[in-house]
Amino acid sequence: MTVQEHNKILNDLNKVFIPCRTVLEMEALISLYLLDHNYNHIKEVPHTRPSSEHLIKILGYQDTPFYMDIIDFFINCAIPKVKPLVTYARDNHDRIRMGNIIPYSKTRVCVYLALHQLKLKFLIIKSIIDKFKEKIPNKTYSNLTRQEKNVKIHLTEFSEEYYLKNKMNLTILFPKSKASDRVKKMLKNDHSITGEKLLEMATSREFFDKNNIIKFIMREIKASVFVCKLMFAKMDLADPFSKTEETMIDAEEVMTSNDFIPELIPAICQNMDENNLDQLKSCIGAFYFLLDKVFEGINRAVEIASRGQLQLEIYEPIYYTGNILSI
Q1: HSE-up of 273 (CA within 13 Å, CB side)?
Q2: Which of 18, 31, 314, 317 is the most buried (most CB within 10 A)?
């Protein structure tokens, strides 16, 4: 990473990631919860706009002060800053109160960071599949050279790529604190919320095993969706990723469905391993089709939250990500 890229990331860190770290804390916490619980148990919770006490009870963290503090701050400090999308009547015409909703505005920045995190997870997946796709020969199997026939893409390789990029992103977001010995002693207790603890929460287990990487990715995605929906509920938007007039595909359902990532990623890797080129190309085609619907849904949520002021290109992140997607 160049000095210029590093400085650009730090610029966004100062504006967004540091004041909105509570979003990342909640993501890490929900992801940890999903290690041992089914997402369906909490899927509809955001619609109820839970209090911190109620959410703590639902998640079963009444006896864990560290987790309770994360939930309490997010619900009682971060969410109240998210202002609803307000419409009002004036001179018999409906008008929309726009306000300042650029990516760094105080009333939206937590929402944008959550959406950025969600989109980045899918961008990381896309970047890996893009690299895999480059290795697919544009020939029939009988015309392949011996070297081309021996090209193998294992699910373990996908796992390592995803884990590396994901941890790189989290390391940027949860930098190790530079503090004096006195401050370090003050922070060295069970209740302090430090970057090191959060990074450990988010990457607490190695997922290089091919049977676990998909579970890891899915709980990360579901955690992001959950956090986004908690904030969109405050904005009176129950389904921010809902299907549009152009398609009947529900982007949120695709994100969390077992028919998308859990089905297609292993199928792509297996067909690559076995050189089933026709089936491989079919799987990749289906993957990109559904992935684009996911990105359209996320971009739609960004556009709704900004009342049309932020309109992203389909693969464009909200904030600068350095070279995470290109390494």
Answers
A1: 11
A2: 31
pLDDT for 71 equals 94
In a domain, 316, yes or no: no
Q: Which residue has the tokens 């990074």?
A: 199
Q: What digits encode the pLDDT tens for the residues 50-108? A: 999 999 999 999 998 889 999 999 999 889 888 776 544 444 444 344 444 455 466 67
Report the pLDDT averaged over residues 208-237: 85
Structure tokens at 248: 């009947």
The residues facing 294 across adjacent strands are none
Q: Is residue 191 part of a domain?
A: yes
pTM of the model: 0.81
Q: Domain span at residue 188? A: 3-305
Domain count, the chain: 1
In degrees and rounded to multiples of 5, residue 168 shows phi and psi of -60, -45
